[in-house]
Design brief:
This protein is an all-alpha fold and 201 residues long. The protein is 74% helix and 0% strand. It is built from 7 helices and no strands. It is globular. It starts with 26 loop residues before the first helix and ends with a helix.
Length: 201
């Protein structure tokens, strides 16, 4: 070993150089991702409008959205959030076929993820579990209210979840920025439209 390779007594090594944070997406990517989220919101909206539109629609969107974040936190894999978009949708369809409440199927999936996450990655799991309990819990509680009041409350909860999306987009944590943007567009559009429909009657 060369003398220059040895650390000089009384000196400390320089701190490791941290890698630069990833560059933010291009503006076109941001616009496209949000527009896809908006289009998804319209799809969910018209799946229950006008005859059956009620708290069930924004509640379903919130259940799947919060499951996406929770699953990504539990596994530590950002791409899992996109997989849960598909799996969560299939779960809802399965619940409908079996004549089970949507909220129960989504809550059961969330509980399983919570148990696994508290064992594997408790620090990452806990904030997402609390978020699901808060946002999704409000939407589930709205099912017990008058349909118009429940629709407004669940819509507000869904629109408020866009703030959660913004936090994760800015920090670039837990989920990919593409999913945060998609979710942001869906949450705002569907949530605010539901509130508007509830007010207009």
């Amino acid at each position: 070993m060369n003398r220059t390779d040895r650390a000089t007594p009384g000196t400390t090594e320089p701190p490791p150089v941290e890698s630069a944070p990833p560059a933010p997406p291009a503006p076109l990517f941001i616009v496209v991702a949000i527009l896809i989220g908006v289009a998804s919101g319209f799809g969910l909206l018209f799946s229950g409008y006008p005859e059956a539109l009620g708290p069930n629609v924004p509640m379903t969107a919130l259940g799947i959205a919060t499951l996406c974040y929770l699953a990504a936190a539990v596994t530590g894999l950002r791409w899992v959030a996109w997989l849960v978009v598909v799996l969560g949708t299939l779960l809802v369809f399965g619940a409908e076929l079996l004549d089970l409440p949507r909220w129960a199927a989504l809550a059961a999936a969330g509980f399983v993820l919570l148990v696994v996450g508290l064992i594997r990655r408790p620090r990452a799991t806990t904030p997402q579990a609390i978020a699901m309990l808060g946002f999704f819990g409000v939407a589930v509680a709205a099912l017990a209210l008058d349909p118009r009041v429940g629709l407004a409350l669940a819509g507000l909860a869904l629109a408020a979840h866009a703030g959660w999306d913004v936090v994760h987009y800015r920090r670039n944590v837990v989920v990919g920025r593409s999913l945060a943007l998609w979710c942001m567009g869906l949450d705002l559009l569907l949530g605010l439209v539901c509130v508007g429909i509830a007010i207009a009657g």
